[in-house]
Design a protein that fits this description.
single chain; alpha+beta; Beta-Lactamase; Alpha-Beta Plaits; Arc Repressor Mutant, subunit A; 16 helices; 10 strands
């Protein structure tokens, strides 16, 4: 009696003397055998990335693999570096749940071997289906608890949700931070939003220690609650970079086109305060989008500076009355607007501003003089400089 899918794969590989993998319905690796023969480039990449390369998926899809119900021999594809292989679909009540794939470069598997592979695929199906039901229940419970933790329910309800996540082995006690992971563009043929978000969650679980994160999804984002002490990392910024980089295999496999944006709140000490960290993570994500932060960047609440104040002003109010009307005159003069913003960002340091803009110092002073004339402000006045700086940042925030 086999206890798990890995045992099934190892037994089949030993019986056939060939390399075997089990993939899920999205061609993500579930289990693989030790290499019992030289393997092709596709198998090597699948094991390293835990995901079949995108070009291989595209090719086997054109061959009709995803639609077949019987074992299918795939021909070699030298252009992709793929040897011939036998693929046996795993289906549950007609629904595709994955594949058993056996390298067969000589196409020498007998009909008896193929029949045995079919039996093994059915055995994998039973393990996948049973494990899948239990896993779905665990995932549903985790997401329900995380959503309670992030909600505006009473503090005792949020604290109880946190205690349950601890007892379920999802999170450890200690400092916590909420993070929003927003993936970039997707492959055009992978339109099922949930599948991509779920794969991001699986990558995060694979990259992080147990009891260090709990997750849910919302719209087009993954939401993580990270236990910093379980990772022995005190800086949320370092965690955010690890969160972003953990999905690199999905980029390499072509599932998403670039690393995601990771926006995060501030670290808190109690479960009942995680909802506040989450709200600030949401505001940080809004700022990142509004100011055009790179899609693969990481940005924290503590990085926002004056945006921490401006983001609380309703966008409509920012657009009507909160922007110094004099600065609006530069909206159609981006060169001057950038010069003024850079100068104010560097606290009036002309040398650094000129270096940043690749300008001669004389050219910078000429621009600043023109800006003072156009905007009718005095850059030697602290009050005017503050008003102009706030106005520019408000303009950025409303796009």
């Amino acid at each position: 009696m086999f206890h798990d899918i890995q045992e099934i794969v190892d037994d089949l590989a030993s019986y056939l003397g060939r390399s075997v993998v089990v993939e899920d319905e999205r061609h993500a690796l579930v289990a693989h055998s030790a290499h019992r023969q030289p393997v092709d480039a596709i198998r090597e990449q699948s094991v390293i990335l835990r995901q079949t390369p995108a070009e291989m998926i595209e090719w086997v899809t054109t061959l009709g693999l995803r639609d077949c119900a019987e074992p299918m021999r795939l021909p070699p594809n030298p252009e992709l570096g793929a040897q011939s292989r036998l693929c046996v679909p795993i289906r549950e009540e007609g629904r595709l749940r994955g594949f058993v794939a056996v390298l067969d470069p000589e196409q020498s598997l007998s009909e008896a071997d193929v029949s045995y592979c079919r039996e093994v695929a059915d055995l994998v199906r039973r393990h996948l289906y049973g494990a899948g039901l239990a896993q779905q229940a665990q995932i549903a419970r985790e997401r329900e608890l995380v959503e309670l933790l992030l909600s505006d329910r009473d503090a005792d309800v949020r604290a109880a949700a946190g205690a349950s996540l601890i007892s379920d082995g999802r999170l450890a006690e200690g400092r916590l931070v909420a993070m929003i992971v927003r993936p970039g563009p997707r492959r055009a043929d992978d339109a099922v939003e949930d599948s991509i978000l779920n794969r991001i969650i699986r990558r995060e679980r694979h990259a992080f220690a147990t009891r260090s994160l709990a997750a849910t999804t919302h719209w087009d984002c993954v939401i993580l609650v990270v236990a910093l002490d379980a990772l022995e990392i005190s800086c949320p910024a370092d965690v955010a970079m690890r969160v972003r980089d953990a999905v690199a295999p999905l980029v390499q496999a072509g599932v998403i086109e670039s690393l995601p944006l990771v926006a995060y709140g501030d670290a808190v000490d109690a479960f009942e305060d995680v909802s506040g960290s989450y709200r600030r993570a949401c505001l940080t994500a809004r700022v990142a989008t509004s100011i055009g932060a790179p899609g693969d960047s990481t940005l924290g609440w503590d990085d926002l500076g004056v945006y921490q104040l401006l983001v609380h002003v309703p966008p409509g109010e920012l657009g009507r009355s909160s922007i110094d009307r004099r600065v609006r005159r530069l909206r159609d003069k981006p060169k001057y607007l950038e010069t003024l913003e850079t100068y104010l960002d560097f606290a009036g340091d002309a040398k650094r501003t000129a270096e940043q803009l690749a300008l001669h110092r004389a050219g910078l002073y000429y621009r600043l003089a023109k800006i003072e004339e156009l905007v009718e402000i005095d850059l030697s006045s602290g009050s005017d400089r503050l008003a102009a700086h706030l106005a520019i940042k408000a303009l950025r925030l409303i796009g």
